[in-house]
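Two proteins follow. First one:
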Amino acid sequence: MVACRAIVSKFRLPSPGADLVGYGESETRAGVRVDMASQARWMIQMLDTLGLARAAVVAHDVGSAAAQIMLATAPQRVRSVVVLDGVYASEWAMDAIASIQAWDPQDADRLFPVPCASPWEVPALREMLKAYEGVKGGARLIRAARDLDPRQTENIGEAFACERRPRPGPLGGARRVSVD
């Protein structure tokens, strides 16, 4: 909590804890892809709407792909990127969500117990995934899983190789690339 108060006192947080479009409790129109390239584009549009020239981006899980795409396509808009448990290049652990991608949308209401299943009863995990409960939540999770595309970042390292900007590393650490 102290860290959160310190961050709030120093930074403007336009959407603290916000979900990506089509994830968690956020909705989107049918037929609109919720892939990470679209998410990156929408984040830039949000900065425009808020009148922010640059932003520090904190990303988690597959949202880190959107942050990396944002950094690669609009580096002048990104002050810094913090990645928590993210993806890199084509390493997206797609096998972990294969069963969700293959799930029959007709049975979307039965999906919620699957990502919550664990050998331990973890109430915080269940609470975090509650947005995917029921028909609408299950359908939202299936759709989001099906729109994930590791090809969107498989060559992302090339975008960082020739320029002086932070480059994500495979273990989540960022390193500076020097330009001669």
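Second one, unrelated to the first:
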Amino acid sequence: MTSCWTVNGDGQPDYDVFSYDYGLFTTGAYSGQVAAIVHNLATNKYFADYFASAPDDGSTVLLPVLAASVGLTSGNPRCSYSAESFDGSDTDTIAGPARFNAFTNSISTAAFASVAPNSSAGVPLSVNAAEWPNSPALGVMIVSRDNFSGDQQAQLLPVVTTHPTANITVGTAPASLSFSVDGTSYTSAQTFSFDQGSTHTIATSSPQPGTTGVQSAWDNWSDAGAISHSITVPTSDTTYTANFHTSTS
């Protein structure tokens, strides 16, 4: 199993977490113990914090890592990730990427219930309305500890929520200069439907070249933010404009 983690918001993987034989990792000889290996893609360093575990019959694998080992802190708690499992002949990919706050869950976890044969049970779930716009869960993972029937041991149930949105338009003046939203670059004004209360990063660069002998220098953002800064989506439609002036050399 492997998962790719992005922690700096640029949309590119920063860490790869995967399962691997601990003996092969440390000595080059099989030990039969599976570890959760963290690969720092920026430094190309590998390390292991914990052994992986398969608490039931092996169809569900837990890869525990320290938050700090994948660049997550209380000041930078959110990440996005994608996950894939494979056994040599089959591959199972979770549609993503998913987003997660390692310090404040957007939805409650670790609920447990005992279910008698031919019966049902329910568990309470709660949603953190303040955190949900920033790290919405793809769903609730239901894990059955008794899958003698042959059914899947783990199943992801989607969470359907309704959250108010606002149209956020980002552009430049003059038009056609370069800017980015959440790490993706554009050269024409863009309008996004974002959840109210969610945070996003808008940025531009300066100077920017134009026709021969002409360049554009950044003056300000219309909201008075820094050349690269985070915005919190308000309750009404809003436009953010990066203002430039031109000069000749």
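SUMMARY FIELD: The chain has two domains: 2-110+121-158, 165-248. The chain has a mean pLDDT of 86.
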